[in-house]
Amino acid sequence: MKNLFLFIFILGSLISSAQETFNVNGAHNKIHNYYAFTNAVIHIDYQTKIENGTLLIKDGKIVAAGEKVEIPANAVIYNLNKKHIYPSLIDIYSDYGIPSIDKSKKRSYSRQAETNNKGAFNWNQAIKPEVEAGQLFKVDNKKAEELRKLGFGTVLTHQQDGIMRGTSALVTLANDHAQTVMLKDNVANHLAFNKGSSTQSYPGSLMGMIALIRQTYYDVDWLFNNKKADEFNISLNTVIDNWELPHIFEANDKLSILRADKMGDEFELQYIFKGKGDEYQRIKELKATEGKLIIPVNFPKAYEVSDPYSAMNIHYSAVKNWELAPYNLGIVSKNEIEFSITTADLKDKKVFFKNLRKAIKSGLSEENALKALTYSPANFINEYDQIGSLAEGKLANFIITSKTLFAEKNIIHENWIKGKQYIISDYNILDIRGNYSLNLGEKVYDLKVKGEPKKLKGSIEIVGTKDNKPDTNKISVSVNVSGNLISLSFNPKDDFEKGTIRLSGTITKNTIWDGNGQLSNGDWIKWTAIKGTADLDKKKQKETKKDSLVIPRIQYPNMAYGFDSLPKAQTMLIKGATVWTNEAEGILKNTDVVIHDGKIAAVGQNLSFEGATIIDGKGKHLSSGIIDEHSHIAISRGVNECTQSVTAEVSIADVVNSDDVNIYRQLAGGVTASQLLHGSCNPVGGQSAIIKLRWGSTPEEMKIKEIDGFIKFALGENVKRAGGKARFPQTRMGVEQVYYDAFIRAKEYQEKWDKFSEIPEKERLNTPAPRIDLELESLLEILNKERFISCHSYQQGEINMLMHVADSMGFTINTFTHILEGYKVADKMKKHGAGGSTFSDWWAYKFEVNDAIPYNGAIMHKQGIVTAFNSDDAEMGRRLNQEAAKAVKYGGVSEEEALKFVTLNPAKLLHLDHRMGSIKVGKDADVVLWSDNPLSIYAKVEKTIIDGKVYFDAETDLENQKKNRKEKARIIQKMIAAKKGGAKTQAPNSKKPKLYHCDTVGE
Amino acid sequence: MKNLHIILGVTFYFLLSTFYSVAQIETPGKKQTKKIMLLNGIAHLGNGKVIENSAIAFEDGKITLVANAAAIKIDFNQFDTVINISKKHVYPGFISPNSTLGLTEIGAVQMTHDYAEYGVFKPHVRSIIAYNTESKITTTVRSNGVLMAQATPRNGIISGTSSIVQFDAWNWEDAVYKKDEGVHLNWVGMYNRWKGEKNKNYDKSIAKLNTFFADALAYSKDNNYPEQNMRFEAMRGVFNGEKTLYIHANFVKEITEAINFSKKHKVTKMVIVGGYDAWMITDMLKENKIAVILKRVHSLPSRQEEDVYLPYKMPKILHDAGVLFCLENSGDMEAMGTRNLPFYAGTAAAYGMNKEDALSLITLNTAKILGIDKTCGSLEIGKDATLFISTGDALDMMGNDVKAAFIQGRMIDVDNHQKKLYRKYSQKYEQK
């Protein structure tokens, strides 16, 4: 038997590659001819061009391409007459031929804890790596034609639904049996930060999606290394099977690419990223990911700006992006990042080449554009041996074009797929457009022929007289061409003829037509038309003129108040200020402070420092930077993962958004550091991020390094009401049990691992390891004092409860945040060792805050609790100094101590006081220069300095405003010009970025 | 020397503390009859003037003397009580316009909300009916110097009719200072609030509004209308000068439309509430004599590229342009946040305004705009003795420390349940 198969195999490869398994109706129609395309400009690949060559194909494959190719006798020859041949284009981000997902099943508001995808699949409905595009694919000629017209021959298609989306299939765009169209299934893995049609509640936020993907990878690892696991999971097994395939991640936006890459690094996985065209805004960081990119060319439309008031509502960043988006590909290319171009995200695919040409005008070389449409996409999915160039043996996928591919008036004539011809614009149709002298006997008319080759429009200008004045009358001429035959008809209404003249004739060459015609009186007449030499190509000169490329200014971040270049650490000597040291020295009048190398270098009288910029501090106050213990600014796509009562696995640190203008606004209020907390809708929320407000930097650069981790807990009304009626807990009684359950599970988890690690190493190999559980890992960190709690809390009873839970479980609540009834249990908090981070005067917004009093801070402080005031609010966050003053007003805290409520004390609560929170030699130079006593309502921020870098300066701020205004106005003028030039516009849109609070649910 | 008490600094506090110890719950005061003199305080009159060493007297609830103590000769025999408030500050009571104080108690408890009636056009709905004189919030607001408010309904296109109240009352009938003084119209947004897209129904809604006003105007011309229409009855005042039309609008085009609208329908007095973009069209506002009740000063800019301090600077811009305007506090947690109204004026001063002019934004200007300036809003002879004494600058958190307050001459209790809880729990820790 074995030999038989071998024989068949050899025979098969000798005869022909073109065999099929399906039935044929009627006589078989096999053609094994050669096809030769001669006199062509052949672009073998993106960098090799043959000026005058021949391409030879047979049986759907390329036989040869070169200057001298021997043409076999049984060849059909096409003389291409200087036309161009390119390898056909490849799009690896497509959903071609995949049935659209039924999205009628909308997510209900009630909680869906479990997947609706019953079966041995992953527990989460959005994780469906088992989906195979190969199984779903059907040929769709209408869609294929749309892409063929653009010169595409092959696409990689997948079902664009869910977080893990399964694998893609490589298919051609031929109108043929699916069996011949499909080249390969299971080509790449696809992922996205998008739940798609999943109706399951979890995950409800971007950080939840990140946690879910990470947990899935850990589960995969566990199953892979643990063959004896008592679980058969098709989804996870598929991930294992497909691990070596490329992984393509639709991150959609530059920050999410960085997020996905960080996740990939954890699992030694390098994703290929599908972006959205804003990569230029963080190009250095994207380059550092070493990830390849798939980039669309859907540039934003210009805004309708004719009404200046309406135009005010367009975001500055949107205006900037409109101008810069076409430069994106050029910038990516210049930075030597490997990328491919996709038609994805284009609602109207017809604008593909128009936009591509815009990109080419904006700095993308034609060679790199071609590379990104042929070599790179093929290479990304390891299929360059099959497609992507015209090398011998590859698929005969190529296009024939009238000019170079990206030229302004290029026409794609034919698209050949696996040796099969698809005519898009027949080059055999004569292009007779031009100016002619039309001779009818003695009479001569000037005929102009314009329009499309298939839809010609003729016109004749007749000069006569009207009211004794010269008068030109333009009359239209109907022009019909069929093969080499031409017919014309028109009514000149002149002295020569009052009726309609009808002419019929032959086109010889391209330039002379002749034949016979009939006048309105029935007389026959001979006619000729001769093409003039002065042609339509007057515009040519304009096109060749190349402007030197000037890329518009990119700001960091690319929005209002973004920097052109990031601030640098300065050496500064602030002289003669009132310095609020927050140290034993107290408030020092007329004192100098030196800042050097990002640190406080000296504090004293009459200081000098070489090379220091002197800043006059006379009459001014210098304080430590404000630290907000509880903030929700600068977060992307959701502050709450509400969908479960314990979500310790999610982390705000994964979703820091460096593009939030509130970062700058808070700098303008003297804030230098913030803890970005998870919301308060579940008893155990997510981990927090602690950032310095390094405006212009990336999320990673903003995060303060080498510090303790924190996590948000929450009690009370938010916990009870969020997550719908079906989520436990619904009462304060249930909240306690959630905590006990969570920590008992965490302890047992620890024991499992301890037991496992006690097993001798040799035996360990044969013993199933416990599964890594990210949620329990995070809880364990709390028990091991590696992660600390900031707990949203109001009423004394629940505060008491949580301290009991903590005491009995052996950990301490680091901070009670909000803690509006802290004044009632201050003694207990003190004994437990908790700090309090509260509002100065908020109350009455919920029943549980009815006993909140503005004296809360003062009482807690008096009882020896480390007390801070926080914002929980983007607006209040920028005037926390005023809130601190309320500790003086309500309860008589001293001014010195009151300012510590928003500086040193939050630093202590965040375990940052060894380097922040006071003006002391050696500490970080995070300081604010105020015009007045910082606790006074009349105090204004003059400078906010972080790490010795000036991030906010009141004077520069005024300049920036002017600069912003000018910049927006300049681009608006450009938009008006674009509209006049025929560009489509969109209505102004004033969508505001969402401001998160503790109880904001959803993205 | 009949009944003469000259009370000096120390005894002044004694007097107040005995007063407070009697009152368990903040109880409305009796009508003032006695003659009271506040001596040697720094008087901020609310009209831009300050008297450093003042003598202010009142009787029967009305101010009888506002003078420089050093410049006049005072016959102390004429007064029942003379209080020496040396170096303390005296202010006219602050007024909070466009307020839901007393109409709501707890934000997240819907059953305590009485500011948003069902329906779209409801001028006949009157806020005063729901105004709760026992609101726990009001006492915490009084103790920061805010002594009056405009109880204002919310929601719908015409949300209802507002009334002005003072904060020392047994019930709403006592509380009312000016009844049913204005109709509130929420101008239809040109843009969808959440998506930011153009409001497709804008033209339709404005057409409805035009029809409503045209009908109401026609109705108002007839005093014996065959069938009474409660909505239009409530609108009469808008056309005959008895009521102010308050149009809530922020976007510059909406404000412009609102001004043209009120002219078209012959509205006698219109005031813009919110007016975020008002600073851009000060000429138009002045030309049409339109006053503005300006959106909360402590707000974020609404557009990305705007001056980060724009809401802080708007008062200065409007003031310099000569627009009549005052400050309000609607928005998140508006009722309880009313106690921060003084600090909005403080911020306006920090960002360029003269402090006394800033003070007018929560006193005399507010009274002018609400049409009550003949009787309150400043410390002037003949006006109500609605005023308070603060240890320091009441526009600054550190100075705002209300020691005593009077509403129409009645001394009110500036204690509140929060202070009581403070005392109670301070005691708890002292017990140990």
List descriptors.
heterodimer; A: 1003 residues; alpha/beta; 28 helices; 26% helix; B: alpha/beta; Urease, subunit C, domain 1; TIM Barrel; nine-stranded mixed β-sheet; eight-stranded mixed β-sheet; 12 helices
How would you describe this structure to a colleague?
By secondary structure, chain A is α/β, with parallel strands linked by helices. Among the domains of chain A are: 102 residues, Urease, subunit C, domain 1, CATH 2.30.40.10; 102 residues, Quinohemoprotein amine dehydrogenase alpha subunit, domain 2 (Lipocalin, Beta Barrel), CATH 2.40.128.120. Helix content of chain A is 26%, strand content 26%. In chain A, the strands form 8 sheets. In chain A, strands 1, 2, 3, 4, 5, 17, 18 and 19 form an 8-stranded mixed beta sheet that branches. In chain A, strands 20-21-22-23-24-25-26-27 form an 8-stranded antiparallel barrel. In chain A, strands 28, 29, 30, 31, 32, 42, 43 and 44 form an 8-stranded mixed beta sheet that branches. The longest helix of chain A has 27 residues. Chain A is globular, with a radius of gyration of 36 Å. The two termini of chain A are 62 Å apart. About 2% of the residues of chain A have low confidence. By secondary structure, chain B is α/β, with parallel strands linked by helices. Chain B folds into 2 domains: 128 residues, Urease, subunit C, domain 1 (Roll); 283 residues, TIM Barrel (Alpha-Beta Barrel), CATH 3.20.20. Chain B contains 12 helices and 17 strands. In chain B, strands 1, 2, 3, 4, 5, 6, 15, 16 and 17 form a 9-stranded mixed beta sheet that branches. Chains A and B meet through helix 9, helix 16, helix 24, helix 25 and helix 28 of A and helix 9 and helix 12 of B.
